[in-house]
What we know:
This protein is 49% helix and 17% strand. The chain is built from eight helices and eight strands. The protein has helices at 14-25, 32-41, 45-55, 62-75, 89-102, 116-124, 166-188, 202-218, and strands at 2-7, 28-31, 80-83, 105-113, 126-129, 137-139, 158-159, 193-197.
Amino acid sequence: MKVHILLGPPGSGKGTQAKRLVEHFSLVHLSTGDILRDAVSKETEIGLRAKAIMAAGKLVDDDTVNGLVFARLQDETGNVLFDGYPRTLQQAEALADFLSAQGIELGLVVDIEVPEEALEDRVVKRRVCSNNACGDIYHLDRKPPKTAGVCDKCGSSLKHRSDDTAEAFKSRMKAFYDTFKPLQAFYSGKPNYKRVDGTGMPDAVFATVVKIFEAHETSGERV
Ligand code: AP5
């Protein structure tokens, strides 16, 4: 078993690429944003604590997120793709300790780079399928659904995330800038760290990332 990581700022396309990659390479998608949103909608103890933090665009505390992730990893046997985790140096260090203790290999760390000026529009105009099992991602201008407010894939209603407002976006970018440099420094020296230009169309970004995964695979290691 190994884990791969997608890094990048809010709206850089981690979720969009993750959905395609998990299908293409039969990976297990582990999005801490999705896990936390599910906890919020089910009003679990963690969800009740996380709700206001997430809506304000701040980060949920490291111990809570690490606990959720490690509990999920204990049950997994397939190769995992993280989307939105780790997000702080503390999370990256805790994950490294956990992987080493469990004998799990760190695979690729793909860092999707998109300049801030392109991100707000992506986030504010994003709509997502309300059916968690589907979770398809739309953009009102660039990837509109065929019928307004309805998911093309499963027919469920689309929703606007509570943190996809211009105000929460500013706070999310602040959280990103506050934490990202040390996180990037932690991974950037590792051989499997790859930077990807995320400004192209989703198909073009996907083609680039697939090549990276295929090169990793042919280097003798299964994705
Ligand atoms: P999370 O759900 O992880 O949100 P995020 O990191 O802010 O990322 P997003 O989901 O906003 O964007 P994305 O990169 O997935 O982009 P997407 O593909 O959707 O986290 C939410 C919150 O949960 C956090 O703020 C925090 O409170 C909490 N949390 C989560 N993980 C945590 C952790 N580890 N520690 C602490 N707290 C945590 O694309 C965005 C839009 O752009 C879409 O409309 C899409 O259609 C469009 N798009 C995608 N790709 C392209 C492209 N190439 N060109 C043009 N448009 C594109």
